[in-house]
Each structure stands twice: as C-alpha cells, then as structure tokens.
Amino acid sequence: MQIYLPIAEMSVNGLLVLIMGGVVGFLSGMFGVGGGFLMTPLLIFIGVPPAIAVGTQANQLVAASVSGVLAHWRRKNVDVKLGLVMLIGGAGGTALGVWIFGILQTLGQIDLVIALSYVLFLGGIGGLMLVESVGAMIRGRKQGARRKLHKHIWLHGLPFKMRFQRSRLFISALLPAGIGFVGGLMVAIMGIGGGFLLVPAMIYLLGMPTALVAGTSLFQIIFTTAIATFLQAALNNTVDVMLALLLLVGGVVGAQFGTKASGFLRGEQARALLALLVVGVALRLAVELVVPPPNLYSIAIPVDR
Predict the structure, then answer these.
(1) Is 301 within the bounds of a domain?
(2) Number of folded domains in the chain?
(3) Of 26, 30, 164, 175, which shows the fewest CB atoms inside 10 Å?
(4) pLDDT one-digit tens code per residue, 121-150
(5) Poorest-confidence range of 11-15, 43-47, 144-148?
(6) Where are the transmembrane segments (predicted)?
(7) Is residue 302 part of a domain?
C-alpha cells in the first residue's frame, strides 16, 4: 500500500506508517509522553527527511495528546492550573525553537543537529531515569516504609509562588514555566512533545504525584505541538499533510489502549520501561551517526514550491 508524500517527495508503505502511529499512540497514553522521541527516529529510519519528520511529527502529537488527555481527564488525573503555567513557558520556547530551526535549515545543518540532539538528550536522560527507577524498585522490595509525597528543594523557594491544589504543591511558578519553555524548544527542534523530559522533571523537580504527571504533561503538549505545527508549516514548509493524517489515525486509536494499560503498572515500573525505550532509540541513532551509509554521496535537486 504505497502512498506518495508530496512535501517529503517520496512514497511510503501506508500500512506501516499506520502501525507506527498506533504503537507511538499507545506509548503516549501509557507513559504520558507525546511519543515523538520514538516516532521521529522511526520516520527517519524509513527514509523520511529529518526536517520533514520533525515538522510533521508535531502534528501527529496533537491528536495523540488530545486522545490521551481525554482519557486521563475522565479519571481526574489532570492538573489544569499547573498545565496552563507550563504552557506559558512552552509557547515562548516553541516560537524560539521554530526560529532556530529555520536558521539551521538555511545553513544546511539541521539533519546533523537533530541526530546529535536525540543521542545526547535521550541517552543522558534515559540513563538517569533507568538508574533511578531500578533503584526505586530495589528499595521498594527491601522496605515498605511510607515515604513523603515529595521533597522540597531550593528551586521551590523561587519568587512568584503559587498553590496548585490538585497536585498539593506550593512552589514558584517560574519552575513549571521554565520546564515548559525547555519542552517547547524540543517540540520545535526535535519534533517531540518533550514528555521524556517533562515527566521526570515534573516528578523530581516539581514533586508532583505520579498519577497526575501523565495527564498534565499531555495537556501542555497539546498546545505547544499545535503552535509548532502552525509555525513549521507557515515559516519552514516542513509539514507533510498526507503523512500527518496517517500518523493521526494510528495515534488516536493507540492512545486509548495505552491509557488503559497504564493502570497496570506502578510508577517506578512505568519509568523503567520508558527509560529502556529512550536509551534504545538513542543507541540506534548513535550507530547511524558512526556507521558509513550504503550510499556515501547523494545528489539533491532543489524544487521551487
């Protein structure tokens, strides 16, 4: 089932793309991440140009995140107030990221920057998450003592403090806004919702209850990815509508099943599985960077659109 992608200027197996969208949607609902950390590399692996993969993937994240948030909303696992504060920073980060993306694309360095960003960010954060989650599971088996809801750190004492009733937090609004800003940058430059960073940051820096993290993270990702999609299409012409539609269909269906599956895992178990996925993708991309490609040279003919 070959389908032609007009912006990417290539044909792909439509069924394969649908399955990829479903798998990523399942992970989105299960772990509270946008799934872009997996989908963007997968699109690159099947031959989609990195710039098109990043721009189009942001579109798919909108639908997958909406579907996941609706499921979490029904279970009352969304802190809307905290999500809106994160969105303020996320909108600014997305706008700045799209501008940087355009500059790198003009310089011809965007493909290298995308690959290096994935290897560094995914490898580092995934490794830290894996060590922490495995340690938490080991400690949980050795002792059953009840722990505090969260630990207070110096960042919580920054100015502009706000109370978030749903998450039982009284912290500086600058902290969630800053986390959202970094997530917005990642949406624009890497084509990811930033969930692999937002989720651990919300748990370890904000001290949010694990049950609320997934829904709140996806709530913020909806809007940052929508902004990124509009700006990428308008300024950089890197959104392939046909590819986005295929990913949307699979993502919406998969997210519903993923949300149901999330209830069968404890917090540390979910974090461990997410960390393994993140590290695996980083290793695959690292291999791509160092192994010589089959065709060492290629000729690209620019086409005026």
Answers:
(1) no
(2) 1
(3) 164
(4) 778 877 777 787 777 777 766 555 444 445
(5) 144-148
(6) 12-38, 44-70, 82-104, 116-138, 169-189, 195-213, 241-258, 270-287
(7) no
